[in-house]
Amino acid sequence: MTRDDPVKYFFLWPAFLVVLAMAIFPLIFSLANSFMSLRLVPPMPARFVGLDNYADLLQNPRFWQTVKTTSIIAFTAVAIQFIIGFALALALAKRVRGADFFRTSFLMPMLVAPVAVALMARQILNPSMGPLNQVASFLGFPNLPYLTDANWALGSLIAVEIWQWTPFVILLLLAGLQGLPDDVYEAAELEGASPWQQFWSITFPMMLPISAAVIFIRIVESFKIIDTVFVMTGGGPGIATETLTLFAYQEGFKKFNLGYTSALSFLFLAVVLILSLVYLALLKPYLEKYK
Amino acid sequence: MSVRDLSGSRRWLAFVCCCAWFLFTIFPLYWVAITSLKTPPDVVGGPTYLPFVDFQPTLKAWRELLSGTRGEFFSNFWSSSIVALSSSVFATLLGAMAAYALVRFPFRVRLLSGVAFVVVAMGGFLLGRDVMGIAPASASILAFCVALALSVFINRFPLPGKVMGNDDIVFWFVSQRLFPPIVVAFALFLLYTEMGKLGFKMTDTYLGLTLAYVAFSLPIVVWLMRDFISALPLEVEEAAMVDNVPHWRIFFGIVLPMCRPGLIATFVITLAFTWNEFLFALFLTNSEWQTLPVLIAGQNSQRGDEWWAISAAALVAIIPMVVVAALLGRLMKSGLLSGAVK
Fold first, then answer.
1. Which domains does chain A have, with CATH numbers?
2. How large is the ipTM?
3. pTM of the model
């Protein structure tokens, strides 16, 4: 049977063209601009400056500050999401009482618009009208400036990320746990392995590939964070919670410095790529060991 | 009861942990829901928790929102709905078609023709804009078409270098998700502005936003649909091919109906993504087609601490997706999504 019909192009090309025109071409356009000195306000003709934009950025402490902030948010949030998510997925997979109910309700935060989540967080963390500070003072803690102190603001953003995206970790890990074969556990049970041993020598190693994938997806996605920061702190206090995307937005939309912003977004891409490569390289020996 | 189930005190511990997480999950949602029912003095006077006990609920905030006395909100709701629904439909359809082609037919793309595309597109654009002085939008379109035609043409020749197959094409699609969207959002904003100068209005239009959403949903659609389609049995399609049924009829008449559960799951995921999307909407729309997330993000600075009104507006964005969450939970229960994460 022939499976090489020209009709295949009719199926592939629409999707291919849309992605090429709407995602790849803008990327090339941006790359071309990043070697230019180009401004909209005040208007300035394009001038080729080579790698100057990149050199400027690498010397800009604000760029490194945003890289640091974004990394702290992404890594801390994803680590906590993974631990909580794994525990809850295990509980659901082991059919805890009310598992069906929990499974549906745990998913909810993931589908709430991040912008709305940020508004909810602002209400709850509000120093005078919010419930959190009231509970804190009731228990004898001092009133805390959740959104106006640099460290607390960062912590609040991380908490919001955890609230919103742990469901994603639960969703994928649960699917993975349900796919594990029963017979291994039956054998372990016969050998008298404790649940703790079963977890560390069967469940965890067998879940390693999917865990690696989940963590990878979450870190890449967390690096793109803007909506929650935009609404909750606007990058403040000062620039203490400014993330990479927000920085690029400020440069591009407030200052209209096009070449600089394009270079910034490419450096951002480079940061993500380097992180991914390091992550995959670090993980490779473990993934092969348990294959 | 299988050996993997919990027993005794562990079972209770797990239950307590799940309840704790449930409270953590539900409290913020409960809080906005009751705040939207409070009167301004109830909000400003410090936190209150229980309707009818702590405070008297009122529908004032909702009435104000729905009657439009506090600014237009219906138009944002409609543009959000129209853009999210239609871009999810298009993305699911185009993605399913691409996934079908990638599962059933062999493709060969030479690395060199891909490189040629990038070089010609970028060089052509710079040449057109900065040397020949063509308007940036025309230069972009021209460079894009020339580069595409050239790379398709040279792909026919036995060029040296790596030849990429279907898996590489899938990877190419999926790798779009790795890019920070700000790179593309900002470039699209510039390109759309330039197009506007030529007379094609793209910023703040249905077409402009929908195209961007389709392009950004396609990677995940292709990835999910590939798994769903490759799980389908080949026999039915082969039987139809023996009867000389054309491929497009096989696809629309046999393949799509057979993977309906997968299509629904993919559609729902795409819908959630496009409904909540913020960055592209922020860059590419400003009034007519502004979506709900952008409107809601603006509430905070416009309204200060009018939490009752802000909560009602936020709930309008949340409720449709909570309904979707319930639907997704149903789908998961039937084990639909377990195939998608292999």
1. 54-289 (1.10.3720.10)
2. 0.85
3. 0.87
